[in-house]
Specification:
With 243 residues, the chain is of the alpha/beta class. The chain has seven helices and seven strands. It is globular and about 45 Å long.
Length: 243
């Protein structure tokens, strides 16, 4: 059976910041990697690139996302089209339904998303996508959204939902909010250049380069298993313990 990995995030560039090394690693190994991006990031800054409207910025960031995903090896992208900065106010039935359809179509064994704390930044959209993604993972294998089933999308229950997390800061590092306990540590240094290239594809985010290099290029990308098969102690692979 071909392995399949899906990421569910709020904004273009979340996939690169949080899981770029993981996606590049598994794509190189032949794992099918896919992404659901809830918003087009149209409320963000453009790093000096002239844009005339939020709509134009959204179109630009969507194109950047496609370019970054091609570099990471992500072969399918679903764009949710929801309001950037206001994802928590979106209709849950609509957002969860989109993610359920995405999971039923892509049929991943493993799903990645942010934790309930919303990543180190605590962004409200990051917190919201955790709630939507968790609900979708739990519902995708049931008879929820019967219209999708009638249209040919069979129920599918992923084996594992993994939340992005990170180590506690050392005494000489700046404080950061705590994440979930680390249960899987994926070594990603061989894919750092691919991850950096994907970041540079997000040209409207160029102002964040120093932050990206400092915070988003660790030797491992770390995860907590929130739903599904528990990870064995010392796991270094998203499929560890799943047979």
């Amino acid at each position: 059976m071909t392995r399949s990995l899906a990421a569910v995030f709020a904004h273009p560039d979340d996939e690169t910041f949080a899981t770029g090394g993981t996606l590049a690693k598994y794509a190189e190994q032949g794992v099918r990697c896919s992404l659901y991006a809830a918003t087009d990031g149209d409320a963000g800054r453009s790093s000096g690139i002239p844009v005339s409207s939020r709509e134009e910025l959204g179109r630009l960031r969507r194109a950047e996302l496609i370019e970054a995903c091609a570099l990471l090896g992500v072969t399918a992208i679903d764009h949710g089209g929801h309001a950037d900065g206001a994802l928590a106010a979106a209709d849950p039935e609509l957002v969860i339904g989109q993610i359920v359809a995405f999971l039923r179509r892509e049929r991943p064994q493993v799903v990645l998303t942010f934790g309930p704390e919303g990543a180190p930044t605590g962004h409200r959209d990051h917190r919201a996508i955790n709630r939507f993604a968790t609900s979708a993972v739990l519902l995708a294998g049931t008879t929820a959204f019967p219209d999708q089933i009638e249209a040919g999308l069979r129920p599918h229950r992923p084996d594992r939902l993994c939340l992005v997390t990170w180590p506690d800061p050392t005494p000489d590092e700046a404080p950061r909010q705590p994440g979930q306990p680390i249960q899987i540590r994926i070594p990603v240094e061989p894919w750092h250049q691919r991850k950096l290239d994907a970041y540079f594809a997000h040209r409207t985010q160029a102002d964040h380069e120093a932050y990206f290099r400092r915070e988003a290029m660790p030797p491992t990308e770390d995860y907590f298993v929130a739903v599904g098969t528990p990870a064995p102690k010392g796991a270094t692979d998203l499929w560890d313990g799943m047979g």
